[in-house]
Specification:
Layout: H1 12-18, H2 21-27, E1 47-51, E2 57-60, E3 64-65, E4 73-74, E5 83-88, E6 95-100, E7 106-111, E8 121-124, E9 129-133
Antiparallel strand pairs: 1-2, 1-9, 3-4, 4-8, 5-6, 6-7, 7-8
Length: 141
Amino acid sequence: MSGENKNAMKPDDYWRQTLNEEQYRVCRLQGTEAPFSGTLLHNRDTGLYHCTCCETPLFDSESKYDSGCGWPSFDAPIDSNVIRFLEDFSHGMQRIEIRCKACDSHLGHVFEDGPKTTGQRYCVNSVSLIFNKSNDSNVSD
């Protein structure tokens, strides 16, 4: 089980006590925050986006872009080994769900309509992420 984090094995009671209600609903119950409501949607600072549940680094600000979909979007994770991909047939759709590989937290979905760099759009709920601003961060529009 090398590479897997013991956070994935934590009981549901641990997550209920550790996360707020919205984080628990999205991260542990595969919910979705309302579009255009996330605190990280318009974040333009330089830094890393970590998993809310286990703090594993998932995305770099350099891969973030404005897709117009209502959720933070990235064209690639920091490393493909930090993301777990699952088929999702919920809500009458066929999608690929993305989860943190270390703790199995629901992050969002990945779509094949991203920018030319990778062609992928990792559409992620803000509550699934913690942003750590780098020291050399700059704010721009």
